[in-house]
Amino acid sequence: MTSTRRPIYVLNGPNLNLLGVYGTTTLADIEEAVRARAAAGGWDVEFHQSNHEGVLVDRIQEARTEGAAIVINPAAFTHYSIAIHDALEAAELPVVEVHLSNVHRREAFRHTSYVSLQADVVIAGAGAFGYEMAVEHLLRTLEG
Ligand SMILES: O=C1C[C@@](O)(C(=O)O)C[C@@H](O)[C@@H]1O
């Protein structure tokens, strides 16, 4: 089913393209699961990954005018990107921050998130399923 609604943007930061190298789940698997869950609720998904901060800022700016909401795993940029923080603030969209790992159980430098300041919901430690949780939350809260 193709939706006339604006899509949910699902954005992924640096090194997440290597997921399949370190584990069994690939980013393509996550994309498939997210698309299926969104489609079941009548929503389309724009799914992107970039290793470049500016490209992610461009995608967030695109979502600002073309998207309904943003799910973002900014990866390492989480912990220091004021540019991504500012882009999310300007977007004025619902934002769900996702981390595969529980960043709070890891190194101290991962305990700071600039993105959380702009996130409505933060999901960390649920693995790939965290992305589906994020979409599920948006399906419940976004209006038609
Ligand atoms: O690249 C990543 C992945 C991550 O965002 C996660 O999904 O758990 C956590 C970050 O600290 C790390 O830099």
Automatic annotation (TrEMBL):
Enzyme class: lyase
GO BP annotations listed: quinate catabolic process
EC number: 4.2.1.10
Stored InterPro entries: DHquinase_II, DHquinase_II_sf
Signal peptide feature range: none
Keyword match Lyase: yes
Pfam family of the protein (one): DHquinase_II
Gene Ontology molecular functions: 3-dehydroquinate dehydratase activity
Protein name as catalogued: 3-dehydroquinate dehydratase
Gene for this chain: PLESTB003311
